[in-house]
Design brief:
Layout lengths: L7 H4 L1 H9 L5 E5 L2 E4 L2 H9 L13 E2 L2 E2 L3 H35 L3 E2 L1 H15 L9 H11 L2 H6 L2 H24 L10 H8 L6 H33 L6 H11 L6 E3 L5 E3 L2 E3 L4 E4 L1 H6 L37 H13 L6 E5 L15 E5 L4
Bound molecules: protoporphyrin IX containing FE.
The site of protoporphyrin IX containing FE (HEM) has 25 residues, from helix 4 and helix 10.
Keywords: Heme, Iron, Membrane, Metal-binding, Monooxygenase, Oxidoreductase, Transmembrane, Transmembrane helix
Protein name: Cytochrome P450
InterPro entries: Cyt_P450, Cyt_P450_CS, Cyt_P450_sf, Cytochrome_P450_Monoox
Length: 376
Amino acid sequence: MRLEDTDDKFDKPFQALDQALSHCPAHIEFEQDNYYVTDFDSAKQAMGNPDGNYVEQSDFFNVDGAMFSTRDAQIAIGKDAILSLKRYYEQRRSQIIETFRDQVGQGLSWPDSANDLMYCTFYDFLVDSQRSPQLRKHLDKVLRHSLYSGQKTHGSGWRRAFIRLRVHRALRAVFKARRQQPPYQGTNRDVIDILLACSPDNESPKALAQIFLSFFFAINSSMAFTLAWSLYFCAKEGGVLHPAPWIVKEALRLWPVAWNLPRTPSKAHTLGELNIKQSDTVTVCPYVLHRHPDNWSQPERFYPPRWENATADAPYMPFGWGTHKCIASAFALNFTSDLISALQGQQLIFEQLSEELHPEPAIAPPEFRVKVKTSA
Ligand code: HEM
């Protein structure tokens, strides 16, 4: 099924996709030669790439359209980072949960509060603030201008580009300076240390800076928005009415924050019923897979109990699939479930502050407020 050529489909892609999905299409041609697959097998073929039909690609390790360093370096970085992240969280677990409960108790607005929580609590995982204090002011600005929901509508494109330029320069300087120093032996090993330790010695500071920012966005947007969507649905239901892991999985089914994963064919080939040319784009869109009526019953309904009997081979890809699947998938689910569980027993009041969705690479919920109902 081919979507009509209107500007609206780029401004409101979810509406356009919903409309297409209501026809139960075999595929969606979002724009000319860009095919959104709808069945799990085709999605697995594109993401797993068993026949080498696609250029090796991962949004995370993408540096100006090419892949970062060597695959060995990428794997080493992923392993080191996830071990470090788990350790970091375990050491601060109760304090982070308490901060989240406080935030909910204060009746703040979301998703910005989720960005604040992630940024403050995981900052030192990304950058040891003692050793590289000069980065803070730059990263504060990236957070404010790239992620806060109000800024998305008010922050101009050129201002964001300028901020990125400045942060890149500051990051490159930090990578160069740290490289001159002997390997760090202290207890605050951060992502900068991990990237330097796991990459070849001649890896460019520019590429290292770009991968650092992939970590920054994974924590401060993907994780933050996953928490915000989970809270959004809980609050709408008036509280935590189901096991937290079901709530988080169901929130990510309806709103997979990484909702668009395009792949570039390396040669002409057949994908399901599609004849793909090398010049086409095949997009695995978890939003489409998760809401296609052939894949899920009542796909638009938020219904956590569906996870009670879900099998491991359900058509579900919020973390990608195959070689480049997210290293943090289990961590992100556990972490978000821990926080949502902490609201068990509280009556939540939901207030929608905006209807607007911003189709950014990571999709955040529209602005909302949550209050806790007091018994008095
Ligand atoms: C809920 C939060 C998260 C979501 C929804 C998410 C989603 C994804 C997705 C969809 C991919 C596959 C990208 C592709 O194939 O193009 C991916 C890859 C990746 N993610 Fe995440 N991510 C999350 C959190 C994190 C965190 C916290 C980290 C690290 C601290 C992380 C590190 C990575 C890495 C290293 C890869 C690349 C794996 C590879 O290419 O081998 N992610 N993520």
